[in-house]
Amino acid sequence: MTESRNKTKSPGRFTLSQRLTLAIVPRLVWALLMLVGRTWRFEVIAEEGVTPAFHGFTPGREIYCFWHQCVLPCAFYFRRTHATILISQSFDGELITRTLELLGYQAVRGSSSRGGHQGIIGLRRVLDDGMPAIFTADGPRGPIYRAKMGPVKLAQLTGAPIGSFHLEPKKAWVMRSWDRFLVPKPFTRITVSWGVWTMVEEETSNEELELLRDQLDVALERARERANNHLGRKTA
After folding, report:
1. What is the pLDDT of residues 58-99, one digit of tens each?
2. What is the DSSP secondary structure assignment for residue 198, as one 8-state letter?
3. 115-147 tens-digit pLDDT
4. Is the dihedral of CA 163, 47, 143, 181 positive or negative?
5. Which one, of 126, 146, 130, lies nearest residue 138 by Cα?
6. What is the Cα–Cα distance from 201 to 219, expressed in whole angstroms?
7. In a 3-state reduction of DSSP, which class is residue 69?
8. Alpha helices, DSSP H only, in the chain?
9. Where are the domains of the chain?
10. Contact 68/181 with Cβ under 8 angstroms?
11. CA 179, 100, 91, 136 torsion: positive or negative?
12. Residue 96 CA, distance from chain mean position
């Protein structure tokens, strides 16, 4: 992993209060997540014919997507994969980057609104090195449950397949945010639901890319629906 992929912003770009926040909050979140996360009980399910990724084999040259609302349980569950995640260039993105680095993740900075092309190039290099890349499909600003084009374009450039998954807690605090961010409660069950893979050919037209983005949306929503059904409730 090259140094440029993990490079964070220069401290001079932040105010004093922001620098203090960056020094304290990531370590605090990491400590709380490691403490509470060890009380969570994970149950893995998958659609028929789908092998759960990271479950019995070493992750490699694949792209993985999930909805932004389940960042917290995903960060804990996949912490040993050393995957690389696309994270926005905002101050909030800097907070997330530093927290995830404490958990063993790598980061490429960029988003659909800022530095998108740079982010795609960085993730392409990650895949070329034989390592997995991860997107919060609808992040960082939504709309909720609508995948951005980034994962599909990256798959077109690299030929890597896109895996879809969702982590749904049985009991959680739901934040009043655009993504209905989930904070799993201690000792809760969390369903890890895997959906079908999305494949993108290099010669795919722009119109077909839109259709494949719709297909990715369906795969992610089916994973979320199956997770809720497994927990005995309807999908909100």
Report:
1. 668 899 999 999 999 999 999 988 899 988 888 888 998 999
2. B
3. 467 788 999 999 999 999 999 999 788 999 999
4. negative
5. 146
6. 18
7. helix
8. 16-37, 71-77, 91-102, 116-128, 150-158, 206-230
9. 10-230
10. yes
11. negative
12. 12
